[in-house]
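Please fill in the sequence for the structure shown.

STRUCTURE ENCODING:
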């Protein structure tokens, strides 16, 4: 499943890019359904920075998924490779549940959109193989697939988009 989104943040590109790259733990307070973001690794590279952040969701698990998803599973690892010259980040998200069944990756590109505006273009993909989830019979997987996929998409996609609005609010608060 494709993930495509374009958002505008009404701040200069450098400010948006650097806030996104460097201040996500502080920005977490502005993101609904996220309790915190922890930085596990930050390493300078020739092109920019490699980051490993852990995101903690704060959302209710649908009743259909409670048998398979526990509150401690509502975390994911975000591995990001930042390219400072190109103003983009390539990312891979690793879930804490169904790790062999969920693949999510993409690129966010930060495009100057006027003197005080940045267009953030998110392009990615999410693949969920419910058949690969241990303990789920194939006849149940067919019925559950849309519900599980919708739950994971609901958990990941809106937060990817909400981050842009939250960065705007974070930068507004510091202006």
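FILLED IN BY: designer on duty
SEQUENCE:
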């Amino acid at each position: 499943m494709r993930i495509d989104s374009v958002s505008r943040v009404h701040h200069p590109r450098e400010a948006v890019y650097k806030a996104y790259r460097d201040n996500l733990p502080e920005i977490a307070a502005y993101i609904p359904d996220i309790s915190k973001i922890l930085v596990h690794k930050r390493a300078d590279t020739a092109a920019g920075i490699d980051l490993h952040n852990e995101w903690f969701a704060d959302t209710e698990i649908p009743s259909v998924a409670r048998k398979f998803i526990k509150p401690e599973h509502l975390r994911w690892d975000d591995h990001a490779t930042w390219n400072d010259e190109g103003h983009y980040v390539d990312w891979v998200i690793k879930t804490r549940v169904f790790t062999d069944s969920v693949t999510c990756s993409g690129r966010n590109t930060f495009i100057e959109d006027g003197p005080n505006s940045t267009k953030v273009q998110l392009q990615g993909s999410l693949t969920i193989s419910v058949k690969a989830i241990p303990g789920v019979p194939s006849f149940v997987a067919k019925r559950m697939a849309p519900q599980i996929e919708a739950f994971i998409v609901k958990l990941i996609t809106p937060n990817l988009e909400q981050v842009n609005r939250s960065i705007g609010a974070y930068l507004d608060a510091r202006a």
